[in-house]
Amino acid sequence: MFGWEFPPKILGGLAVASYGITKGLSLQGDVETTFCLPKPTGEEENFLKIIGMNQVPIVWRDVDYDYLKYRLPNYTSPEEYYSFRDHIYADFSYMHVNDLGCMEFAGGYPQNLHEEINNYSIIAGVIARSREFDIIHAHDWLTYPAGVHAKMVSGKPLCIHVHATDFDRSRGQVNPTVYSIEKNGMDHADCIMCVSELTRQTVINHYHQDPRKCVAMHNAVYPLSPELDAIPRVEHPKEKVVTFLGRITMQKGPEYFVEAAALVLKRTKNIRFVFAGSGDMYEAMVNLAAERGIADRFHFPGFQRGKQVYEAYKNSDVFVMPSVSEPFGIAPLEAMQCGTPSIISKQSGCGEILTNVIKVDYWDINAMADAIYSICTNPALFKYLQEEGKKEVDEITWEKVGLKHRAIYDELIRNYNK
Amino acid sequence: MKTICLYFEIHNIINLKRYRCFDIGRDHYYYDDYENERTINDVAERSYIPALTTLIEMAKSNNGAFKVALSASGVALEQLETYAPRVIELLHELNETGCVEFLCEPYSHGLSSLANEECFRDDVERMRVKVKQMFGKAPKVFRNSSLIYSNEIGAIIADMGFKGILTEGAKHVLGWKSAHYLYHCAYNQNLKVLLRDYKLSDDISLRFNNSEWNEYPLFADKYIGWIADMPQEEQVINIFMELSALGVAQPLSSNILEFLKALPICAKEKGITFSTPTEIVTKLKSVDAVDVPYPMSWTDEERDISSFLGNILQREAFDKLYSVAERVLLCQDRRIKQDWDYLQASNNFRFMTTKNTGMHIERGIYDSPFDAFTNYMNIVGDFIARVNAQFPEDVDSEELSSLLKMIANQNDEIAALNKELAALKKDAPAAKKEPAKRGRKKKEE
User: Fold this and answer.
1) What strands lie across the sheet with A342-345, from one edge to the other?
2) 3-state secondary structure of A49
3) How far does the CA of residue B114 sit from the closest CA of chain A (Å)?
4) In A195-328, at which residue ranges do the beta strands (DSSP E only) sit?
5) Architecture of the B3-290 domain
6) CA pair distance B254, B211, nearest whole angstrom
7) H or E element: which one contains B89?
8) In this structure, is the dihedral angle defined by the CA atoms of residues B245, B249, B250 and B252, taken in order, positive or negative?
9) Largest CA distance in chain B
């Protein structure tokens, strides 16, 4: 598998999904997963084999065993290094490499992202030549070139996983470079897994893919760890708390949240709104709240990480995700795990597998305001969504997603080259 | 001799409009007139008019051998009067043939039988008056909204002077017993209970046009054959359905009306008659009491009230609405009374069901049960505020009722006291102070 993010380093939904899928597969017992990451931290869980792209040589260097032992992290053995070194396929000595003949990665999403994507794909060629595998699985567009490269080298089937498309990120104003990478990856793929039917339709209609090779593969959630489960829920008998949690950016529709809040506050004063997250529209949203005269009811606690996220969920009476276009959106599932009723936009992929949430169009601020008001004022609705929502989300597990993956893999291998 | 009791229900919901929380306190009109007009005209054209025309024809051509029972909820009649008067004309025409019996049901098609006895009685009484007024005969047989029935409801209905009641022949109530006999209410043996044969009823209303059904296509001779083949002792076959089954649920193109027309002819050949519910309850003797401790209805597989009050949302909405029942009965405001009828309709609760029935649930304008709940609760919120504005909230209903009675009677009482005063004046001029004071106090209250 090729991926860009993996826990414990979480930047967005991609890491969580990558983890869930590999974990779900590992539970089947007979699936061996190798996960290629640009820059592992060394603290990843060990149910799968991690390969750090920054430890794979692309230029031949004569290094002795003991030096390697000292230089390499403990999840990469010197033998593996030598095996990779034996499969260097071209002269990359013009490139910037370190003393082991490896390239450095900044990790995350740096300025020279396109260069890193290219480097990642070069290294993928080395890995594809040196290791045995049955299937290639590439997560998100950053690793599509690597996947395509590995397929060319090994002749094994390629499965790509569309966690988001550029149409989602840009409200239609696509970046041509990104689009071309995505399109190329999809054209070469033997199977395209999309995180929702919504994404599947985008892939079919905007990337002109054969519907037969596109499947909807919904994400799932992990049960809350005992530590997170133990965070107490905060009751608000007087003032209800409504939360938005996510990047404050165009894709997530933050302005609709503010407009809906303004409408609710015209009706009642006993609701507070929490706007957790950061992003390029942060300032605009603070200004908008002030313009609507509701800044006194609005709180901007900034970016939440780790445990804080769950504390925020458990401290809310309503969670709102008004995304303009959300391929899947794991956040409402997490909120439901914490017992918080969710309102999501109909343009969110997770809505396809959830029934105990309120779905509104992202632009329909009247309906959104009405739903917020209704949950805050009708304890019966709150209780129903809380209880039934929790029951429902507990049934959505990565184990089941892993089994679905397995079935597709099996079929892919069976039918490949026939 | 076997007899068939054929009964059709006419009910149409008053559609609520999209009512946001911002409208609470500002907008007191809750209905979607356009949708009401459209739906009622649609049903009238596709179903009521052709079906009633057929029934009239059947009544005329069978020389009194064909009998049918009908009932319409008060709210449906109001709508028909406004938007589709042709249907009312046909009802009158059918009435004139003398082959039809009109039954009574709650005016609002609501669930008051499960909430508040006084309110229920009022609901039924108004319908009884309306039926009498329209069709000239006071109804003797009652059917509750969605055929909801329990021992308590039976006792109330018996107490109101009805001779019979229609309900579902639910398996879980009957057990080994057959629905093809006449029973009586467990709490009052004067009230006869007619039980619906759900198999034969659903054969027409649900399955008639279903080509995957193994009895498809169904013809009248086959259908009557089933009835004729039943044991000789089983005498009453109750076939109850909504009138809209003829034309809406089963399209006219399935020739369902031709099927209906053929029924009396085939029945005659086999010696099977048609009877109205009143004929059955007066002619036949009941074989046993039917004990229904928990309410049952004709909806869904469970045949209980879970499709109306199955989840906490529905129960919350129900409790909120009926929390003001007593106040609504006391108030005189006509608009409040009218809204009360429209809001009670059981369909409003059915929209909120979260039961997985495996079948498509018609939800009207709502896309989810939560949406239906939110909209309904917004309206009920406004309605309750209006009801509460009628009378001070801190006076409890009983006290209020006695005060209102006092106000209503104050003139009589003052006149009586004045008389007394005059009489006393004659006898002893010194005693006039006290009664005068009492009279003034009453007025202040």
Assistant:
1) A298-302, A271-276, A240-245, A318-321, A342-345, A358-360
2) strand
3) 20
4) 214-216, 240-245, 271-276, 298-302, 318-321
5) Alpha-Beta Barrel (3.20)
6) 10
7) helix B85-96
8) positive
9) 95
Question: pLDDT tens for residues A145-157?
Answer: 999 999 999 999 9
Of A265, A254, A251, A287, whose CA–CA distance to A372 is shortest? A265
CA distance B93 to B14: 26
User: Does B370 contact chain A (CB < 8 Å)?
Assistant: yes
DSSP structure class, residue A6 = B
Say if A216 falls within a structural domain.
Answer: yes
Tokens 């369909």 appear where? B347
Residue A110: C-alpha distances to residues A105, A116, A414, B360 (Å): 9, 9, 40, 50
Task: Provide the number of CB pairs (under 8 Å) joining chain A to chain B.
Answer: 62
Q: Strand pairing of B246-247 and B250-251?
A: parallel
Question: What residues make up the domain containing A265?
Answer: 226-394
Question: CA-CA distance, B301 to A53, in Å (whole number)?
Answer: 60
Residues in a beta bridge with A272: A241
Looking at residue A5, its pLDDT comes to 84
d(C-alpha B213, C-alpha B289), whole Å: 35
Domains: count for chain A: 2
Verify whether the Cβ–Cβ distance A388 to B354 is below 8 Å: yes
Please tell me whether the peptide bond between A176 and the residue prior to it is cis, using omega within 30 degrees of 0.
no
Contact between chains at A374 and B378 (C-beta distance less than 8 A): yes
Q: Measure A399 CA to nearest chain B CA, in Å.
A: 25
CA distances from A134 to A80, A158, A159, A409, B64 (A): 19, 10, 11, 9, 81
Q: Is B171 helix (H, G, I), strand (E, B) or coil?
A: helix
> Residues B318, B344: contact at Cβ < 8 Å?
no
Question: CA distances (Å), B173 to each of B5, B111, B157, B277, B296, in order?
Answer: 21, 20, 20, 21, 8
My answer on whether A105 and A145 are in the same domain is yes
Domain boundaries, chain B: 3-290, 397-444
- Judge contact between B82 and B290, C-beta under 8 A: no
pLDDT tens digits for A407-417? 999 999 988 87
Lowest mean pLDDT of A275-279, B77-81, B83-87, name the range.
A275-279
Q: Does residue A135 fall inside a structural domain?
A: yes
The reply to whether B323 touches chain A by the CB within 8 Å rule is: no
Q: What is the reported pLDDT for B58? A: 93
How many angstroms separate the CA atoms of B91 and B55, rounded? 10
- Kindly give the pairing relationship between strand B141-143 and strand B100-102: unpaired
Extract the runs of DSSP E, i.e. beta strands, from B295-397: none
Q: What are the pLDDT digits (tens) for B33-75?
A: 999 999 999 999 999 999 999 999 999 998 889 999 999 999 9
Contacts 24+ apart (CB under 8 A), B404-413: B404/B330, B406/B442, B406/B445, B407/B445, B410/B442, B410/B443, B413/B439, B413/B442
Q: DSSP letter string over A175-201?
A: -HHHHHHHHHHHHH-SEEEESSHHHHH
A152 and A263 inside one domain: no
Dist. CA A78–CA A76, nearest whole Å: 7
Q: Which two tokens stand for residue A227?
A: 């530590």
Do the Cβ atoms of B22 and A385 come within 8 Å?
A: no
Residue B380 main-chain phi, psi, to 5 deg: -60, -35
Chain B residues with CB under 8 Å of A377 CB are 21, 377, 381
In a domain, A206, yes or no: yes
Parallel/antiparallel/unpaired status of strands A318-321 and A342-345: parallel
**B373–A381: do the CB atoms touch at under 8 Å?**
yes
Is the previous residue joined to A145 through a cis bond, with omega within 30 degrees of 0? no
The span from the CA of A404 to the CA of B433, in Å, is 94
Cβ proximity of B65 and B274 under 8 Å: yes
**pLDDT tens column, A366-401:** 999 999 999 999 999 999 999 999 999 999 999 999
CB A218 within 8 A of CB A401: yes
